[in-house]
Amino acid sequence: MARHVYRCPLRWADMDAYGHVNNVEFLRYLEEARIDFMFRLAPAEGGAAAGGGTSFAGGSVVARHEIDYRRQLVHRYEPVTVEVWVTEVRAAAATLAYEVKDGPEDGGAVYARASTVIVPYDFEAGRPRRITAEERAFLEKYLGPPAESGRPAKRSQPGMPTQPGRPGEAAAA
User: Fold this and answer.
1) How far apart are CA 136 and CA 133, in angstroms?
2) Which of 109, 111, 144, 146 is a plausible cystine mate for 73, CB 3.0–4.6 Å?
3) For position 149, what pLDDT does the model report?
4) Are 21 and 74 in contact, with CB atoms under 8 Å apart?
5) Predicted pLDDT of residue 42
6) How far apart are CA 102 and CA 127, in angstroms?
7) CB–CB of 62/96 below 8 Å?
């Protein structure tokens, strides 16, 4: 499975009052890696943005982010590595996975694992659009499993509703 690797510099302003990189900055690191993947890499490989037509990179919106913070990251002069790959390609959406970590030469410690659902969007028409065949071919080169969250799978607990209802109310059969 191929992963796109982006080396992201840390900025002094990324730190918060607690002396570590603020959680919001992680979203910016993901954005930088995603833009590098979609704007720089896709056209270079003749993928989504090739041909001058509507591109996935130039016409997409974020529908969802999910981040699992694994360890504290403090400012340093060495960049972090953000690995990006695709975990799902549907007709009108794709899911990207990420790991923010040290490079292998620095021990490979993982600071965060994340995912983003992106939706191709036609800004002129003001609505989502389908993924083109070229975009799908590019994305599928990077298809792989979801990032491991390190959390156990979600299970319903006995006595807890499995459908919406009032707290403590059992779901109807």
Assistant:
1) 5
2) 111
3) 57
4) yes
5) 72
6) 38
7) no
Q: How far apart are CA 119 and CA 21, in angstroms?
A: 28
> Strand (E) positions, the chain?
4-8, 60-69, 80-89, 94-101, 110-122, 127-128
Beta bridge partners, 80, equal: 8
Structure-token pair, residue 168: 């403590």
87 or 156, which is more confident: 87
CA distances from 17 to 12, 21, 166 (A): 12, 9, 39
pLDDT tens profile 20-52: 999 999 999 999 999 999 887 776 665 444 344
The amino acid sitting at 68 is D
Residue pLDDT, tens place only, 117-154:
999 999 889 999 999 988 899 999 999 998 775 554 44
The whole-angstrom separation of Cα 115 and Cα 144 is 13
Radius of gyration, CA atoms only, the chain: 19
- 110-122 vs 4-8, strand pairing mode: unpaired
d(CA 68, CA 128): 28
CA nearest neighbour of 119 among 47, 46, 65: 65
